[in-house]
Specification:
mainly alpha, 153 residues, 8 helices
Length: 153
């Protein structure tokens, strides 16, 4: 039992150290991409989520966080590149700190890169001839009001 507890404590310490290292790289290196490259393979989803949801980083280094996110999206590790959780963590921080244009750009880029068919510019403008036109709701019947039915004072 002690061995399991010691291993869990060592893993937690290792995760905390890795989180601190990644945060330091993102806040102080001129080229975080090259400094992060050797660490990517050691990142776990909880560590990535901690970095992407860091209030300090969103306030002062949101462009660097966006670069970090793009590094993760292009990493060869499926747990980091295909999970929607990093995107949600990043978007939440962007919205809280009112980086609306970054949020919009990120979403549009992801939608169009997900699949060319999903590109916002490729949205159908008109329905094809073979489909039936949508049925329009019928308007509410109007009841004419006569002057005699209104109350007079």
């Amino acid at each position: 039992m002690t061995t399991t507890t010691d291993a869990a404590a060592a893993a937690a310490s290792s995760e905390a150290q890795l989180l601190k290292t990644v945060t330091t790289i993102l806040t102080s290196h001129l080229d975080p991409h090259s400094a992060l490259k050797p660490l990517i393979q050691n990142l776990t989803l909880p560590t990535v989520l901690s970095v992407l949801s860091s209030t300090q980083l969103h306030r002062t280094h949101f462009a660097t966080l966006l670069s970090f996110f793009h590094i993760l999206r292009h990493s060869p590790y499926p747990s980091l590149s295909s999970s929607p959780e990093p995107l949600l963590a990043l978007l939440a921080g962007f919205l809280v700190h009112r980086h609306y244009s970054s949020t919009s750009s990120l979403l549009l880029n992801l939608i169009s890169s997900d699949h060319p068919r999903h590109s916002p510019s490729a949205a159908p403008v008109s329905r094809s001839q073979s489909s039936t036109p949508p049925s329009l709701p019928t308007p509410f019947p109007t009841t004419p009001t006569s002057p005699s039915s209104s109350s007079t004072r």
